[in-house]
Amino acid sequence: MQGTIDGFRYGAVTPVAAYLMACLGGALGLRCVVRSLHNEHSWKAGWLALGATSIGTGIWTMHFIAMIGFQVEETRIGYDAGLTVLSLAVAIVMVAVGVFIVGYRGATTGTLAAAGVITGLGVAAMHYLGMAALKLNGTIEYRTSTVVLSIAIAIVAATAALWAAVSIRGFLASLGASLVMGVAVSGMHYTAMAAVSVHLHSTGGAWTGDSATSLLLPMLLGPVIFLLLAGVVVMFDPLLVMGEGNWDRSFARHPIAPKAADRQADSAFAARDSAAPRAVETNSGRHGPSSTTSRRRPR
Q: Alpha-carbon torsion 113, 117, 118, 119, what sign?
């Protein structure tokens, strides 16, 4: 018997909340990647790692917030904690691979394509690994064509996100890119969910564990806190909230300017000190030594 699936148990609440978390993770990640690529004085590996973790955490959080609204009317749903945590690790690691490839090898067409494929496959793997964590009285089945479409959307979304990270510098432009990225990631999720059907087992074997929210809500707390802390780091870094412009010059102007001022002051003092003895010689030469020197000159 086929189960009756409802992906919007709480109406628009879960899709909107999931979309906002995807946008938040994307916005933070893009700004961190931009910070590492456009300023040679930054700790590149650290900013790339923070950016990849933000994007991966945002995508994972989006997925499981959306899954809070998923239900099968004929059976309760639970989640395997180990597989749920593993899906988070897969999302972060695969996004990091793509981000580091672009961060260190540049934004050539081949590099973006390879990094986009790796990252997109990682996002898709996170989604379907998270679906494998579901525990219910039935078997989850997928429509192959829709699964392929969801993977294609994930690859396109990942490639676009990496392109935005290396091509867009301004704050407002990055914000707009993160909104588009949120649409793409959410679209991938709900496309993949459209491929799902549930074949129910006999009633006697019904799963009677904890509800989905009893596990998901506590597990979502950590990633949400991380995204908020990452947001604090971004907002308190002045270079990350700058608009267009040469970041290297802006960054270098502050530490170098005081040194230049010190050099100018030293030059002024040196010029004054060297000028003082000449003035003394000139004044003294008017009364004596100059006349002696003039008599010794050959005629």
A: positive
**Exposed (0-12), middle (13-18) or buried (19+): which is 173, by Cβ within 10 Å?**
middle
All residue ranges of the chain with pLDDT < 50 are: 205-206, 208-210, 241-262, 265, 269, 279-299
Structural contact between residues 66 and 277, judged by C-beta atoms closer than 8 angstroms: no
Dist. CA 7–CA 131, nearest whole Å: 13
Return the CA Rg of the chain.
Answer: 32
List the one residue out of 56, 33, 20 whose CA is nearest residue 164.
Answer: 33
Rounded to the nearest 5°, which phi and psi values hold at 247? -65, -35
* Coarse DSSP helix, strand, coil percentages of the chain, rounded to the nearest 5 percent: 75, 5, 20
pTM of the model: 0.73
Tell me which residue has tokens 């809070």: 68
Which tokens hold the place of 16? 């909107």
21-40 tens-digit pLDDT: 898 888 888 888 877 776 66
Which phi and psi (to 5°) does residue 6 adopt?
Answer: -130, 115
Contact present, 25 and 61 (Cβ < 8 Å):
yes
Round to whole Å and give the CA distance between 271 and 280.
15
Question: Three-class SS of residue 199?
Answer: strand
For residue 11, give both structure tokens.
């109406």
Max Cα distance, the chain (Å) = 131
> Which amino acid, one-letter code, is at 107?
A
Q: Is 11 left (phi over 0), alpha (psi -120 to 50) or beta?
A: left
C-alpha torsion 42→90→98→113, nearest 10: -160
Torsion of CA 215, 217, 222, 226, to 10 degrees: 150
